[in-house]
Amino acid sequence: APWLCGGRGGWGAVAGGLVVDSWTLRGRALNLEDLDLSDGGYAGWNPRAIAATAIGCFLAWGGFIFPVLKPLYDYAWFVGFFAAGAAHFALATTKTETAEHAEIAER
User: Fold this and answer.
1) pTM recorded for the entire structure
2) Helix and strand counts by DSSP (H, E) for the chain
3) Interval 44-89: pLDDT, tens
4) Which residues contact 14 (CB under 8 A, 6 or more apart)?
């Protein structure tokens, strides 16, 4: 079923952003206490991560709409994972974002 491949592309994009954020940007430092706090280090929305996920989803799902991108759709999970991961890394490596991750890692 073609829709299954599309679903995998969406989940691949989510996974790519999560892996890059937790393993690369935050240095595998997870503050468990902050996960449940409304004002903790993980509070709110991260527009850069949302944009990166949207980029990964667009590339993963593009072959469903545009025939020229059909090869990307055939490997939707991997395309979504690597595209969103690369986009999240590129968008999040600003000084402000890097300082925020360093502060969370120190907690």
Assistant:
1) 0.78
2) 6, 0
3) 888 999 999 999 999 999 888 888 988 888 899 999 999 999 999 9
4) 53, 80, 84
